Structure formats: C-alpha cells, structure tokens
C-alpha cells in the first residue's frame, strides 16, 4: 500500500469514528471481515447459496448463483478459505457516501490472500504457486496455491437502519469470472 493510500484510509476511518460510529475499530472490523470471508467462501465452495441471504446483497447473490453453477469443481474448491489459511489482509478502498434519499453509507473493500490446496490446472493465470511441501519422502508433494479475493462490505449508518455489514461485491480473480 502506498503511504498516500494508507493515510487516506486512516483519515476515512477517523471520519467513520467521529461522524458515524464512535466505537468503530479497524482491528475489530478486519477480524470480522476475515471471519465473514472464510464463512462466505466456504459456503460458495459448497454451493450453499441459500445460507448467504443475510450476509450478501441480493444483487451479488443473484450473480453468484449464475456463476457458481458454471464452475468446474476445481475452481469451486479453490474458493474456500480457512481462517488459518488467510495469509494477508489489507483494506482497499474506503468510501463514505449518501444516496438521493439522504441515507448514509460506508463501504470498505478488503483484499485477502489465502492458501488453498485445490487441484487447479497449472495454466490458471493470475495465481501463484508458493509451496510444494514435501511430507515424508520425495514422492509425496502437496501443492498450495496463493489466491486472492476482494470482498466489499457495506453498512448503512442512517438512524434506525440495522447495524449490519453486508457484502456488496465478491471477486475471486480467475476463479469467478
């Protein structure tokens, strides 16, 4: 992350705490985002889209239903991210905006890098193999792929709105396209 982007993000977090939620914590949000990413990615992998209603926006869920049904098993397996397989997490873009009706929203794009042992073909562009771990002898190798995902979380801060974060964008480059 560039220093300017980092400062801009921290400034937005300050605005969120001052104007919307005095108890907002970047660390707590990141922990919750990682947990949500892990749960949602596993449900996507298992094709249990009906369990995502409360977590994912209706528009994103509809698009996912179409994409998931067309995925080969190896790509679908590669969507799943265990909590302990998440290697790195960072904020992307933070936005504060108002709609035409005066409702207040905050959206935070989170980027995740995670290890996955799915049997992906070697020619999958956009991913990086980082480990070939040898267990026991040379004939037993386990491949791990370092994959990325972008999830955007949105919350409405209008008075009376539910205090829940909803996922409004899900991207698993080269897997969900």
Automatic annotation (TrEMBL):
MF-aspect GO terms: ribosome binding
A GO cellular-component term linked to this record: mitochondrial inner membrane
Superkingdom: Eukaryota
Organism: Alca torda (Razorbill)
Protein name per UniProt: MAIP1 protein
GO BP of this protein: protein insertion into mitochondrial inner membrane from matrix
UniProt gene name: Maip1
